[in-house]
Amino acid sequence: MGGLMGRCARIALTAGVCFALASTVTLEARPAAAVADTVPRAASAPPPVSPTPQSLARAGRDAVVTGRVIVVADEDTDAGARARLVRELTAHGAHRVDVVAPGQVPRAAAGLLTVRLGPATRPDVEAALGDTAVPDHAEGYALRVSGDRPGAQIVLGGKDAAGQFYAVQTLRQLFVRDGRQGWKAAGVRVSDFPSMPLRGTIEGFYGQPWTHAERLDQMDFYGDVKANTYIYAPKDDPYHRSKWREPYPADKQAELGELVRRATANHVRFTFAVSPGESICYSDAADRKALKAKLQALYDLGTRAFSIPLDDISYTRWNCEADRAAFGEPGRGAAARAQVDLLNDVQRTFIATHEGSQPLQMVPTEYGDLTDTAYKQTLRETLDPAVEVMWTGTDVVPPKITNEEADKASGLFGRKVFVWDNYPVNDFGNTSGRLLLAPYDKREAGLSAHLSGIVANPMNQPYASKVAVFGVADFTWNDRAYDAGRSWPRAMAHLAGGDREATDALLVLGDLEHLAPTFGATPWQPQAPDLTRRVERFWEAWDDGSRTEAVEALRAHATAVEQAPATIRGGSVQEGFVNDAGPWLDATELWGKAMVTMLDALAARQAGDREASDRLRAESNDLQQRARAVRVDPPRNSWGRVQPKVGDGVLDSFLVQADVRLELWDAAGGGENLALRGTATASSVEQNLDRLAPRYVNDGRMGTRWASGYSDDEWVQVKLAAPAKVAAVTLAWENACATEYTVQTSQDGVNWRTASTQRPDGCGNDVIRLTAGETVQYVRMQGVSRKTTWGYSLYEMGVYGAPAS
């Protein structure tokens, strides 16, 4: 204590003020350089800033970071903003940072960089901002950087404390190299504020919740990207849902307290959600008392935002007979009356009586459609107007959200809705084996006029979720300027610490993990769009006779796929991401090697060296088998120990097609997926659902599927458009796969020959190679035994070969 108090006394003598944080930072050696943007840019172009500011323009000379920097701050300066400012200055060339009060800038500061941080209304800040407009908007800020003589100056003025913090988050992205050794801040002026009041995430997935350390890291990340909301709602935390009446154990309570403090330091609104709907008796005073006690415990830890999700519960039954007497027979209207009675009570007797509390949030039982019902009508007409209502879009995982849809939802619930966006969450069957690394997209510009905010429901893998959450933060801050194509590489650069090579490797991996499923048949983002374009160009060039050029072009990208995992593991990328993506990186390296080797086999065969081609082809097939044997283990998701999907439907299809081209060298149409022009039929369809019909097994889309009835002897077959010599069959299984099945062929659809018997050890993508001697027109997957009590389910069945004619 003596050392700290003595230092404060010395500062007070010279500066007239003392802060709780160390006000002078002196470094014996220059710190390691912070992230540098290595992209060359014209002098007139300011560095890219994320989230995209409302207004950012050049405004004079860049300000050089001097060895000693003066920071002007006072008691109204946000502590978190001040601490981050000092950290960024020392990381960008300042050996010493002196924090002084307004009016106490020492004369020796002439020629030094001066940084003013505080409320935009503070006289010195207001004067230094000059004509830089200060937004009259919560969390807004103005920033001006000027390197003009006599002294370089940076001014950061916030509309409020959060605005000050966000001004510093923008400034840290404006530092660029000044020659080889030094740093400077780009001369700009910025007027900025968020378009949406609520921005961030809801940890609302099923499966293994995040660890305490992972959540702490997320709070820092949200501060970096100007996200202000985190809703604590992990479905598999028993004290959130099934044990909602019970207080958290002491150790968990301590963790939550630390999490609240970390969130607050980053201007993140820690929102505590408790989900009592599975067992609450709405009319029971004791249950209401228990609910409020749970909220009170978190209020005592510093929480000021609360949510009561009532999703994924039944409103066709009551949990107690007293509710039948109080609200009527179970049903939509009765459920809404009971819920409103509870929610209004909490809003009016807890939220309104607890100083600093934000309006109560809730998730309705009908959270994912635009149909008006007695349930929604009751909420619309009787729910307290202050309560925030969450909505997931037109479906649980919506392929898009438009202004028209959001406006209609707001009308249905009688207020602007707060979107719970189920991307990039991967806790449902269609996401089995997937990391969802596509950019945040398909949400319409202008939604800020219709929504109170958006929170993303992330994956069980927190670091991998940062790719999409970065985009969510960018979109919700300034939806009208959002561009997924610009935001996505910046998200990868954030994970890579600004390292260009690592960023490029992450973009390669992200392309292979691009598919984003919905609960329905059609994914809302495609798989591997970049690789798809490259493969299409390859076959066009190959078939046109430019074979050497085709191999060289695609081999360069295949090499990038092979090398991406090692680069990602090289040290620049956040360690948590490397751990999250570990099985996918293992598989990607093997798939990349297999692709390089197969291309070499094609080149050798084209050069006339069949022996080398056959050897390389066999090596590639072995690498593919090793890639298919990789498992996510131990799994964080409820889908368990599964094969990680990597470029599925694109990379593996290319390899099969190339293999068949070698098998049927120069045969007309050799290597074509003949199933795409065939007709599929099946022994049955699950519950006769059209969305699971046989035609989806050969439509070339990995997001659709066929599913059978619930018996072992079900089958699906494709009648080819013409008789053909078939060299390979591919089966892309959903989780309801076979533990044993046969591949059968027929010339007439009546007499069948068993070409192969398969006993896979998991549900993945199977490749069955056949002897391409016999001409056939029918190919069938005949089930022998099922893995689950469901039927068989296939995303896609490919038949590769050449027409017999």
TrEMBL record:
Signal peptide: 1-22
Domain GH84: 197-480
Keyword Hydrolase (UniProt): yes
InterPro entries to which the protein is assigned, alphabetical: FA58C, Galactose-bd-like_sf, GH, Glycosyl_Hydrolase_84, Hex-like_dom2, HEX_bac_N, NagJ-like_helical, O-GlcNAcase_cat
Residues in F5/8 type C domain copies: 663-802
UniProt keyword terms in alphabetical order: Glycosidase, Hydrolase, Signal
Source species, domain of life: Bacteria
Active site: D312
Gene3D superfamilies linked: Chitobiase/beta-hexosaminidase domain 2-like, Galactose-binding domain-like, Glycosidases, Hyaluronidase post-catalytic domain-like
Family of this protein: Belongs to the glycosyl hydrolase 84 family.
Matching PANTHER family: O-GLCNACASE, PROTEIN O-GLCNACASE
Protein name, UniProt field: Beta-N-acetylglucosaminidase domain-containing protein
